[in-house]
Amino acid sequence: MLDVSAxxxxxxxxxxxxxxxxxxxxxxxxxxxxxxxxxxxxNSVTLKEQLVSGDTFEIGTFYTNQLDITVYDDNFLSRTYxxxxxxxxxxxxxxxxxxxxxxxxxxxxxxxxxxxxxxxxKLTAFDDSTKFDVDISAYSGGKKTVQQHIKELAADVxxxxxxxxFSSYPNYNLIVDSTVSSSxxxxxxxxxWCCALMASSARINRYGKLEIVKLKEKTKTVDGVLVYxxxxxxxxxxxxxxxxxxxxxxxxxxxxxxxxxxxxYKNHAVLTLPDAAARNATMFIPENPLLQSVSDAERKTxxxxxANTIYIALRRAEFSFNGNPAIECFDTLFGNGGKIxxxxxxxxxxxxxxxxxxxxxxxxCAFAELTDEATESASEAAILVATEASTINKIPVQVKSKTExxxxxxxxxxxxxxxxxxxxxxxxxxxxxxxYKNNVASAxxxxxxxxxxxxxxPxxxxxxSNTVASNPSCHAEGTGCVASGQSSHAEGEKRAxxxxxxxxxxxxxxxxxxxxx
Length: 517
Fold this sequence. Notes:
Strand content: 25-35%
Distance between the termini: 61 Å
Largest sheet: 13 strands, antiparallel
CATH topology of the domain at 418-515: UDP N-Acetylglucosamine Acyltransferase, domain 1
CATH class of the domain at 418-515: Mainly Beta
Helix content: 10-25%
Structural class: mainly beta
InterPro entries: Serralysin-like_metalloprot_C (IPR011049)
Protein name: Hep/Hag repeat protein
């Protein structure tokens, strides 16, 4: 949580507030516009911050924070907001009549998302994490410690590091090779994978600096008992809606893969803090490509060292309240009263925040999968996560402009399996996915994805494992299937079948099916 005074906290909790918006918008021509309530459209200022995507807790992330703001400006013919720098602040009047301000961040307007209707300008701006969307080939990397990579990447793009002491993070001095895997394609990718080794995530903080953050329960001792030390307590009268899960998930099992082979580790976390009951949970962590540059023994040691620092009792929760923009993701929050109908206060760890000026402040807290024990089948889920990561982009809160080349995790994968298509022959517009080495797409507009698949006829499509599509417009999927008739379709498992045009072969439905066009 940002450093604020006790008087600020008292004012923010008061049922009647006197507040205002402030800051500046600096245009590219040097003109500075002061932000005041007079130029802001009501309910238009929204700040979105996140360190986790969705309901499942994760590490190794670097998301982009987003500011939406709508302003009145009659000089719309002479002004342009393209690439303007916005530095907004929230200010609240204290009991003595003075004002205290909270920075909301430093943002650059994305002109491709700017909309104007008459004199009303709707601006969307992003923080400086976008400066890390640079092709990794620009980085003079190689074998360096994890902290060295982060420091040099920040220096390369001109961002100041807020985190200067890395000694409290696991694996911070582990030497890894940034060139070992093709899945590390951007500066952002490398930052994320380095953070994953340190059981942390990255963000651009409210002062425009790169900060490495780790979710850690804040505690204190009261009358000899270890208890949570809340950054802020959200009282029942402050909240407008509350949904929470009674159980807590204690991060106990950690599941990943090494070269595609599942690996499960159990740390020594024990529940020591009072609150609701907790059950053991499993975190699925994608295979880290940077660990390909170290020995097998070092891989396991690095993974276990990371896991041993993650012992959190997570609670899934979503609530809205009157708002406190000083709250940040990974803070320790308390909630009591209102719909929280259990004794005492319960702890929350926000992973997604959406703050609206003079509106609702929405807080979401991610969870982990409850499990009595982790097995290899659980670890296979980590491999699935890794596979899915090859096709799911790491995007900010809102997808940004392609014209601005915001790459937010383009091609990020948890292994060398590639979800980004590569032209096998640019003249023929044929592409291979995933297994770039063994997949074959050799005819006009053919498409091969999966593992050891072949599409060697025009408009053919092969997917799965060891499938072949060998005639125009045919489609083979599954394992070992062959589609060799024009416009035929073969699918199934563990058997290679012939699908001819205009006929359907008998099939064992449990194993495979094949049908003609």
